[in-house]
Write a structure and sequence with these properties.
With about 260 residues, the chain is of the alpha/beta class. It has 2 domains: about 180 residues, P-loop containing nucleotide triphosphate hydrolases (Rossmann fold), CATH 3.40.50.300; about 70 residues, no CATH class. The chain is built from 8 helices and 10 strands. The strands form 2 sheets. The protein has a 6-stranded mixed β-sheet, sandwiched between helices. It has a 4-stranded antiparallel β-sheet with strand order 2-1-4-5, covered by helices on one side. Helix 2 crosses helix 3 and helix 3 crosses helix 4. The chain is globular. Bound molecules: adenosine-5'-triphosphate. Adenosine-5'-triphosphate (ATP) binds next to strand 1, strand 2 and helix 1. Adenosine-5'-triphosphate binds next to strand 1, strand 2 and helix 1. Keywords: ATP-binding, Nucleotide-binding, Transport. Belongs to the ABC transporter superfamily. GO terms for molecular function: ATP binding; ATP hydrolysis activity.
Length: about 260
């Protein structure tokens, strides 16, 4: 049993069973993992292994059937401002400008503080949309709309940023740009991140640690640390893709995926 740590995300013996059409579907079984504060974790695994379900439980949108989840020592049992979620389908408000979209979360959440214009500007700049602050979502590309969603979520300074296949709908080039943009911002802001992905390259590029889940029911099969990246030149995708360790891990995870496919057949 994993001891919950007070610093970071701690998932301890978590299981989830859905009751559907009169029968029980066990989506996740006995998941225990730790994501230290300031790190990027990736939930990777075949379709249906429970990645989104686990992320939704960390967001507080679902409750575990067994086990506990804590963030920085506090129990997670409902959504909260300490966590911010970004979905794949750009969740910006079409009737609000970029600036107002980013400000929206602050406005509804501001208890005492007045709307902080500086924060809005800071995050619009961080995602490179300063020239589009007064534009509306329909005037933006998919990648730009996803930047708005990221800026809006980060403007609330969440302790943990949760992302469910955030770049899955983007073309490969934009996807690479968005991955670099995300890493640049979260390193600077020191935000912890948990990302759902089913893309091996993305998982190894983004993650400090990759949690590989197997399915039926979803179990934590392997935890892969990517310490090898610290010896590579920073922000150099080519060096990353050509490194021996990346190639080794990519092949290893590909085999894990294939094993899952065989098990399901
Ligand atoms: N609300 C629900 N009611 C019943 N079953 C559910 C519900 N949500 C998820 N499941 C089941 O739980 C399992 C895990 O689903 P989940 O969406 O978390 O997997 P995933 O790994 O994110 O899949 P994908 O990569 O395809 O998005 C699946 O068998 C799914 O059918």
């Amino acid at each position: 049993m994993t001891m919950p740590s007070s610093n970071g995300l701690s998932i301890s013996n978590v299981g989830k069973t859905f009751r559907s059409g009169g029968r029980d579907i066990q989506a996740l079984e006995n998941i225990s993992l730790e994501l230290p504060a300031g790190k990027v974790g990736v939930l990777l695994g075949p379709s249906g292994c429970g990645k989104s379900t686990l992320l939704r439980m960390v967001a507080g949108l679902e409750n575990p059937s067994e086990g506990t989840i804590t963030l920085n020592g506090r129990a997670v049992d409902q959504p909260g401002r300490d966590r911010g979620m970004v979905f794949q389908d750009y969740t910006s408000f079409p009737w609000l400008s970029v600036k107002d979209n980013v400000a929206y979360g602050l406005r509804i959440n501001s208890d005492r503080s007045a709307l902080n214009e500086g924060t809005v500007e800071h995050f619009i700049r961080a995602v490179g949309l300063e020239k589009f602050a007064d534009a509306y979502p329909h005037q933006l590309s998919g990648g730009m709309r996803q930047r708005v969603a990221i800026a809006r979520t980060l403007a609330n300074y969440p302790e943990l940023l949760l992302m469910d296949e955030p770049f899955g709908a983007l073309d490969p080039e934009t996807r690479w740009q968005m991955q670099d943009l995300l890493l640049g911002i979260v390193r600077k802001e020191r935000t912890s991140v948990m990302v759902v992905s089913h893309d091996i390259e993305e998982a190894l590029y983004l993650g400090d640690v990759v949690f590989f889940l197997s399915r039926h029911p979803g179990r934590l099969k392997e935890v892969i640390h990517t310490d090898f990246k610290s010896a590579l030149p920073p922000n150099d995708r080519e060096a990353f893709l050509q490194s021996e360790e990346y190639r080794r891990l990519e092949l290893h995870i590909r085999r894990l995926m294939q094993d899952e496919g065989r098990d399901a057949a």
